[in-house]
Amino acid sequence: MAEMLFETELSDITYWLCIPARSQGHLPPSCRLQHPHRNNIVTIHSLPPEIHRNIYSFVGDIIDIISLGLTSRYFWSISSEYVEDYYTPNVGSWAGMHLICVGDGVQPGDYPPGLFAAQELAALNQQRCPDNENEPFTLHSFASPAVSKIYSGDTSLKSNELVNLCAVRGIDKDPAYSFIKPHLIDSYTPRFAVNQHWVLRNLTTNQFVRSEVIAPYRGYARGPFIGGGIGFGQVLVSRICWSTSPSTDIEDVTNITRGVWAGHRFDIVTRSRHEAQTRGEKWYDVSWEIASETGRIWEARYGPEWREHLHFRFENPDVR
Predict the structure, then answer these.
(1) Which residue range(s) make up the domain with 255?
(2) Which one of 36, 53, 213, 233 is most buried, by most CB atoms within 10 A?
C-alpha cells in the first residue's frame, strides 16, 4: 500500500477513467483552416462539419482515414483525432465500472455494501477459489486470471506500426505525407484539455472532486493529470480499498481498508462537461473533504512538512 500511494504516479488509473476532451484542433493555429467555401461551388467542403464527421464514422480503416486527411489541412484536423484514438484505445475504458482495490486478507462473504445483489452473493458463496479448490471463494479471487481479464497497464504507442502501414499502402509517396508524418511518429499522448479544470466523479454517490483543490500546489494540475504525488489516482485508491484485515504498511488514519467508495463507479471529465451533463441534478462537491483526508494520510507518512517534501520530489524527479 505504501508503494502504491507514495511511490507510484498511478497515472494509468487516470488514463483509464478519463473521457478525453481536446483543447483545440491538433494543428498549430497558423495551420488550422476555417471551414472552406470557394466561389459558391458545391464541393465536399461545402458540407457542414457534422456531415464530414458522420462520413468519418463510416471509414473503418485507419489508413483510409489518414489518406482522407492528406487531402487538406482541414480534413487532417479531423483525421488526427482518429489517429490519436488509434494510439490510445484504452482511454476511458474503466469509466463507469465498479472499482475495488482488494487486499488478499479479505475473508469469505466480506463484500462492500451494495456491490452484489442477494442472488449474486448466494452464487458467490457456493463457489470455490479458482486457484485452490480447498479454499472458499473471496473478493480477492476476482484477481485470479481464471476469473478476470488482467490488464497489463501497457499503453505503449503504435507509431512504428502505423508508419509501416502507410509505406505498405504507398501513401507515404503523397506530397502531403511529410507534413503529417511528424504527427505519426511523435510521442503521442491524448489531448486532455490542459486549459480546463477536471473532476473525478463518483457516479454511484453523485459526488465529485476538483483537480485544482487536491493538487498539492497551485499549478500542479495540468488537465486531469496532477503532478506532485497526489492526483486522482491516489484519491481513488485511498477510498476504494477493501480487506477484512486492517493491517497495512502505512499509518492508517482513515480506516483505509474499509474504503467508503469501494465498489463504486467513476469517471473523470472536464468541469464544463460535468456541468452540462448534470444540469438540474443534485451533485455534491467533496473536494475539500478529500483534500483534508489525503493531507492526513501524507502527513502521517512525511510529517507536517509533507507538502514541502512533495514539492522537492516534483522539482527533483530523480531524487527519492
Answers:
(1) 1-20+91-154+199-320
(2) 233
